[in-house]
Amino acid sequence: MSSFKKKSRTILVLSAVFSAALFHGTALPQQSEIEFLKRQLGEMQKQMQKMVERIEQLEREKAADKTSEPPPQVQSAPGGTPKPGTVAGVSSAFNPAISVNGLFLGGFSSSPRTTNRLTGLDFHNGFNFQEAEFQFTADVDPYWKANFILAIDRGGETELEEGYVTSEQLPYDLLPRNTSLKLGKFFAGFGKHNLLHAHQFPFIDQPLVSQSAFGSEGLKEPGVSLAYLLPSSWFSELTFQGVAGENESLFRFSEDAKRRGAYLGHWKNFFDLSDSTTLEVGNSYLAGRNSDSRHRLSQAVGLDVTLKWRPLQMATERALIWQSEYMYFTRDRGREPFTRGGGMYSSLQYQFARRWWIQGRYDLLGVPKFDDGRKHRWSTLLAFVPSEFSAIRLQHSYTTQERGSPVNQLLLQLNFTIGSHPAHQY
């Protein structure tokens, strides 16, 4: 060990001894001052430890530069796998983080065809492979981060679910402060539920109003997104997005149709009500030309509210989430009547033990009007969650229709993830 390294460690030890002597030999008048000094001491020790580690790293690099030996050959373990710490191991640091999510679904519905139409599930009575997602995430450079998600459905067809790059800083200050940029194909920032992939759904199926407005695939479009964090005392973010307008349900897009584009705005406000409770309120608006002969206007407006409670003392065992969302959408069809619809859902999720959740959701479609009549849906769910990488969920739903027979549905789902597990939407 060099003298410089020894001196650094000596300074670290002396600073700890001196600070300890200060606390034992001085009577501070207030407990808050004692806690403040303790925190300062801890931060100083952490900084000194980082300095020592950095010195050791520089010395190793300097010693490596002085050697004139040829670069080491790649050594392989039995079977041809490179050993950790070899040249190949260093290059693996630039590989993307990879994760795979699988969904297996079984159950019974009194009308599978109606279940698929109302919820977007490709469901058949019995056992089903629902979906698999492959996610690849990596930093492109200091300015861009890339995220690609491939989805494989029960028929074996592969689709680019999302593929985009994001940035919060560009050279020469091209991107203003507190601004983030997204380019590619992504789920549009309309409301709360539309941002989620199938394995992230709070319930096994999506709400009735989401399926009615955007279809089973949701509102995911190629485009550009710009988000700006407002200079307020609470979290307040404005998002503007320009997208292609390819949604089959809202814009009636088809392969031979000409895209006219659409524009979206979302305003999210996030409040800390206490150390254990948060409130989020969002507003969304979307407008674009549909693919009818005269390219008339399609619009959607939404309001979402989410309240979350998780006590600090029992953060792994207790939680409560209340989420509600309302959407209203229209599509102008010229001389024909408007295609219009409105609806909402409200759900409660309660964690009553470390690995157990109980949940309920109410859906109402047809407020104030819906072309296909009013529908009500009640859903209950019990979830066993061994870890953040797996969950077994049992859900029962009962749907009544103004123009149709009631539908009973019982679903059992296995949801699991392997690999580098990215964080979900909060």
Structural overview:
This protein is an alpha+beta fold and 426 residues long. The protein has two domains: 63 residues; 322 residues, Porin (Beta Barrel). It is 19% helix and 46% strand. The chain has five helices and 16 strands. A 16-stranded antiparallel barrel has the order 1-2-3-4-5-6-7-8-9-10-11-12-13-14-15-16. Strand 8 and strand 9 form a beta hairpin. Helix 1 runs antiparallel to helix 2. The N terminus is likely disordered.
Which labels suit this protein?
426 residues; 5 helices; 16 strands; alpha+beta; Porin; 46% strand; 16-stranded antiparallel barrel; 19% helix
Q: How large a portion of the residues is in β-strands, by DSSP E? A: over 45%
CATH superfamily of the largest domain: Porin
Mean pLDDT: 83
Number of domains: 2
Unreliable residue runs: 1-8, 10-29, 71-90
Strand order of the largest sheet: 1-2-3-4-5-6-7-8-9-10-11-12-13-14-15-16
Largest sheet: 16 strands, antiparallel, barrel
Q: Report the CATH architecture of the largest domain.
A: Beta Barrel
CATH class wording of the largest domain: Mainly Beta
- Total strand count, please? 16
Shape: globular
Structural class: alpha+beta
Rounded Rg:
27 Å
What order do the helices and strands follow? HHHEHEEEEHEEEEEEEEEEE
N- to C-terminal distance: 47 Å
Helical proportion, percent range: 10-25%
So how many helices? 5
